[in-house]
Amino acid sequence: MHRFSLRPQSAAVLSGTGLSTVVFAAAFLLLAGCGSDATTYSAAPKKPTGTAGASDSACIPQTQNQGCHNAGRMWCEDTTSTWQNLGSCKQPLQCIELPDPKLPGAKLASCEEVVVVPPDAGGTDGGSTGGDDGGTVKPTGVCARWLTDREKLPEGKWTGNSAKCEPGTLSEDAKEAALRLVNLYRFLAHQPAVTRAADLDAKAQACALIMKANGKISHFPTQTWKCWSKDGALAAKKSNLSTGPGVRAVDRYMVDNGAHNAPTMGHRRWILSRTLGPIGVGSSTSKGSCLWVIGGKGNSPRKWVAWPPDGEVPLAAFGQGGGSIDQTGWTLQSDSVSLHNAKVKVTVGGVEKPVKQRPLKSGYGSKHAIAWVPQGWKAQAGTTYHVAIKGASTDFEYDVKVLACGL
Q1: How many of the other CB atoms lie within 10 Å of CB of 260?
Q2: Which residues, in sequence order, are bridge partners of residue 353?
C-alpha cells in the first residue's frame, strides 16, 4: 500500500512575514454565493466518488453536503435533488472528500495535492503497537489533518467486568483512536509521533478497572480499593487519569480544566513532552480511563513546546473536552530553558492583549513551564496572535495563526 500526503490547495501569504495561512475552508464558505453561476445537473445527477453524505444517493437535499466528481467539486443544492458545481481542481490538484465538522456523515470537497510516498521502512519497536503502518492517509495540512483524524473516534468495546474484577481488554479501534488524538496534538505542536506498547496497554487497562470499580480516580489507590492490582496501581502513578472514557479524555487532558490542575497543567504537558512514548491506553469505555504517559523513551530535538503552538492551529483545538484553553491557560514548556523570570506579552497587529501569567510546577512533562490566561478576550479564527516571552534564559517570539477549519 502507499501513504498519501495531502497538502492544502490555497495559501494566503501574510504581508511581511513570509509565512502562509491555509485557506482550507474556502469551499465550505463559498456555498452561500455559488448559486448564480453554478451548473445544474437536474437531468442526470452525478454521483460523486465516495458517498458525499449520509447515504449513497445522487444528492441529499437540505444538507448542502459536498462531493467530488472527477476533478470537480460539487455541492447539493438546498431545496432540490441536484448537484451544483463548485469549480474544478487544477492539475496537479485533485478533489478530495474530507469530513464536514458541522454535519456528521457529510463531506467537504477540497482541492489537494496528492503525493504518493513509499511505505515507511522498518517496523515498530519491540512490543510497540499502533502508529503509522505505511499504508494510511496522513494529510500534512493542518485543517485536513484535524478533520481527517477526528472523523471517527470510537470509544470501543470493553470485555472486562468490574463486579468480577476482570480487567478484560479494550477493542483496538478505541486504542488506535486515542493514539491518533495524542499524535494529532503532537503534530500540531511540532512534536514527533509516538506509538503504543502492548504491555503498557495491559497495565493501563488494569488501572482503568480500578477506577471503574471504585467510581473515582486516584494516582495512589491503596490495596483497600476494589479490584486493586500491582500493575493497575503502578499504571495509576504513571498515567493521566479521567473519570470518562479513554478517547474523549485526550481532548480533556489538553484543556486541563479544574482548579486542582491549574498549578501544573500536567496532563497537557505530558502529552506534549519531548520524552513521551511509547504510551499505554486503558478504558472501561464509560467511567474510568488511564493513559500511560510517564517514563517515556522519547527524545524530541525541539527545545520548547507551546500550546497553542507556534504556527497554524484550528480554533476547535482550543476546546474539545469541556472548557477552553482561553480559560485554563496557554502554556510554554521546556526541559532546557529556564522560565523563572519570563514575562509574556501577546499582541494582535501591534495592540497588546492583556493576560494573567502564572508559573507551573516543575516535573510534570517538562522541567520548566509557564501559563497565561487571556483577560477579557478569547482566540478568534482568522487572527494571528504574536507571543513574545522575555526575561527567560532564552527569549521567544512566535505567531499563533488560528484557523477556522470549516467550523
Answers
A1: 7
A2: 346
